[in-house]
Amino acid sequence: MIPSTLVYDGQGTIWLNDIDCLGSESKLLNCTHSIETSHCHHSEDVGVHCFLSCPAEDDEGLLRLMTCSADNKGRLKVNYKGEWGTICHNFFDHVDAAIACRQLGYCSGQMIHSKYVDGGQGTIWLDNVNCFGSEHNLINCKHSIDTSHCSHLNDVGLHCYLNYPAEEDEGRLRLISSSCIANKERLEIYYKGEWGTICSSYFDHVDAEVACRQLGYCHWYDVGLYCYLRCPSEEDEGLLRLISSSDANKGRLEINYRGEWGTICSTGFDDVDAAVACRQLRYCSGQMIRHHFVEDGQGTIWFDNVNCSGSENKLINCTHSIDTLHCSHWFDVGLYCHLSCPLEEDEGRLRLISSLTANKGRLEINYKGEWGTICHNHFDHVDAAVACRQLGYWCV
């Protein structure tokens, strides 16, 4: 019988109700029944699933994998009542998967979650499969044939292991590249006779350090894996440089860390941190450039949440974090380092830049040893009067 919820509602008269057959009858009408159907509705119409053929004894319980990729992975199907159908995943686990894979001629295997399996068609034959682990055939495990609550979204999938790995191969690691950088790749592990990947959930720097050491590198960093090409010399660690396409004292800040140049994330970075960095670069002071005015860098983002007190000789001596997984190069720090420390009498001097009359033009100010302009936001006639008086004009 097919549950009424899976049967299209009929039309017309509902003839019979309360049918009860012994099993030997040649006609359904010969079974006891009632013709009192006034309380019935077409939503309760009976459906049946008739088997196409009676299975041969040696076919009952045969298994196969339906796949569009590797032969050893796919949707599991079972031959039951002479037809191929699927198995519902309720309580199906790796023990049951191992039995099924061994029946299919593999050494062992594991279950694939149904959301990663292409939905099947036709009959769902079994549910609540529960194997002890010693069975030779899956059909010999405990199971239920009540699958009325299942759908093909719940079909069981299997990943069967191709062979038993040699003891010395089990757990080997390798890095797979999709770029030209040899030491920054996807991490893969050899397990159960096959190469596969590792999920990044809870994978942290300590785990990466172990993996990199196994691969023969000296240090660790980042999900996937980032293994350092070389260990830095003491004098290189923490060196700074400015990358710029224009002025030498303005640009993206980069730091040498673990033997490689990389950028710094702008989270928490302020003018105090910028002043420390600029002094390290042999300027008198400096200020931060907002990240959207800085050309995006490439490679590793080394630091985040830099916080200097202002007295440090090197930026690397400031408190900082190396957790930069949430950062992108859009947030790279930029610096504007002051070329010279201004004389006290020059600080705040004004001038007018004009191509016409001397008393009209762009206002510039000398600040931090350099001439620059003033933004017009909220600048009004009162401010202009003060500036003009400073420039020596009194009638304003």
UniProtKB/TrEMBL annotation:
Origin: domain of life: Eukaryota
SRCR domain boundaries: 1-51, 63-161, 173-216, 240-338, 350-396
Entry-linked InterPro entries: SRCR (IPR001190), SRCR-like_dom_sf (IPR036772)
Cited PROSITE patterns: SRCR_2 (PS50287)
Swiss-Prot/TrEMBL keywords: Disulfide bond, Repeat, Signal
GO cellular component: membrane
Position of the signal peptide: none
Entry-linked Gene3D superfamilies: SRCR-like domain
One matching Pfam family: SRCR
Disulfide bridge positions per record: C21-C31, C131-C141, C308-C318
Protein name: SRCR domain-containing protein
Organism: Mytilus galloprovincialis
